[in-house]
Write a structure and sequence with these properties.
183 residues, alpha/beta, Rossmann fold, 9 helices, globular, binds adenosine monophosphate
């Protein structure tokens, strides 16, 4: 099974992706986590990504596409849940080419929806504990704006193939809503 989970920063997509990965035995591919590991290793990709991430901007599409092309090819025989990718229309087009070349397709696309004010409150709370360099208030606001400008258009791109989930509620409630839609 190939799942894709989308939603603005703070919607809880990482939390839900982990739960779904466990339940359906999928590899959880969080591009944010992968990039943070690359930064820790000071790899070439990590060094390229760091400045963009710290400012809350997107890492260039070609970096992500190259990284995901090799990762998805390696994992072609496994179920995966994509969390945080694609984040732009060119990434979505690139992803469909990658899956086409592997003779595969996305089974379900989940979009978690949460009101913008709730998101900012959640992220400011998370910032107190996370120690993430991109969890300052200024960067949080920038990440929401980047989402609206570059990532939200994916909702139109995927249109009727998306399952929209209300992300306001407890973790269990949101999981339950998602599971009601997954065959
Ligand atoms: P996340 O952990 O998903 O919130 O991602 C943290 C940061 O990693 C984002 O603000 C971006 O700078 C970068 N990032 C993660 N995924 C992508 C992507 N698909 N395209 C571009 N940048 C990304």
């Amino acid at each position: 099974m190939k799942l894709l989970i989308m939603g603005p920063p703070g919607a809880g997509k990482g939390t839900q992706a982990k739960i779904l990965a466990k339940k359906f035995n999928l590899v959880h591919l969080s591009t944010g986590d992968i990039l943070r590991k690359e930064i820790d290793k000071s790899s070439e990709v990590g060094l390229k990504a760091q400045t963009y991430m710290n400012a809350g901007n997107l890492v260039p599409d070609e970096v992500l596409l190259e990284m995901m092309q090799s990762t998805l090819t390696e994992l072609k025989d496994s179920g995966v849940i994509l969390d945080g990718f694609p984040r732009t229309i060119p990434q979505a087009i690139g992803l469909s080419k990658i899956f086409q070349s592997l003779n595969q397709a996305i089974d379900s696309i989940i979009n978690i929806e949460v009101d913008k004010n709730v998101l900012i409150t959640r992220l400011v709370e998370r910032a107190k504990k996370s120690g993430r360099a991109d969890d300052t208030e200024e960067v949080i606001v920038n990440r929401q704006n980047v989402y609206l400008e570059l990532t939200a258009p994916l909702i139109e791109f995927y249109q009727s193939n998306i399952i929209h989930i209300d992300g306001d509620g407890s973790i269990d409630e949101v999981t339950e809503r998602i599971l009601n839609h997954i065959p």
